[in-house]
Amino acid sequence: MKKIAVFASGSGSNFQAIAVAAQSGILNAEISLLVCDKPGAFAIDRAEMLGIPALVISPKSYPSKAAYEAEILQKLTSLDVEMIVLAGYMRLIGPILLEAYEGKIVNIHPSLLPAFPGKDAIGRALAAGVETTGVTIHYVDEGMDTGPIIASASVKVEAGETRETLQKKIQRIEHSLYPEILEELLNGEEEAVQWEKSVH
Ligand code: GAR
Question: Where does (6R)-10-formyltetrahydrofolate bind (predicted)?
Answer without folding.
Answer: 65, 90-93, 107
